[in-house]
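Help needed: design a sequence for this.
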């Protein structure tokens, strides 16, 4: 009997250690779901953004939604895993492609695309994102200075602003903006 209890404890320890990353400098997944917005003055559900055939992130165009993984990158500063706040990157599930700001050194609005990930230790600035649980699991681009928190631009009714003709979602906080979320399918409309 003691042998089977010991084996059970061994299996439990092995299973739990697989879920917790070892001391490493590489980025690792902490959250999975769909990249989504919470639009409108009185939102009830999250709405996933889409990905068009040019790998551009869109809103309201009917493009297919896509699964993502938020990865914490331990070498980036300000990691607070104990309160679910991370600095890292967002990858498209099952790929080596990251959510990338196309014009990170330009001026607002910024736009998003999906392209091959840079370093899996310290991603390029265009692929650095913040995950914060202080306002309910929010996601922001870290910005040019890496101290900004840049979300998607919103209009007077808190709906995402998109580029005319392309439906590319616009990022920027010089006027008004809101944070993204990474949500399971059950939380989407």
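Sure. Designed sequence:
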């Amino acid at each position: 009997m003691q042998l089977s209890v010991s084996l059970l404890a061994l299996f439990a320890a092995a299973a739990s250690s697989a879920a917790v990353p070892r001391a490493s400098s590489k980025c690792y997944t902490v959250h999975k779901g769909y990249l989504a917005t919470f639009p409108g003055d009185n939102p009830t559900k999250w709405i996933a953004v889409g990905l068009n055939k040019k790998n551009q992130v869109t809103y309201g165009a009917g493009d297919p939604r896509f699964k993502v993984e938020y990865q914490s990158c331990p070498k980036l500063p300000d990691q607070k895993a104990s309160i679910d706040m991370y600095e890292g990157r967002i990858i498209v599930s099952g790929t080596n492609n990251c959510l990338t700001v196309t014009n990170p050194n330009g001026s607002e609005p910024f736009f998003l695309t999906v392209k091959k990930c840079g370093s899996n230790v310290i991603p390029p600035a265009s692929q650095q994102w913040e995950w914060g649980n202080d306002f309910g699991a929010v996601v922001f681009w870290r910005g040019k200075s890496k101290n900004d928190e840049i979300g998607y631009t919103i209009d007077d009714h808190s709906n995402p602003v998109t580029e005319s003709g392309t439906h590319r979602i616009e990022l920027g906080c010089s006027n008004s903006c809101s944070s993204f979320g990474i949500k399971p399918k059950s939380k989407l409309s």
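The helical segments are 2-19.
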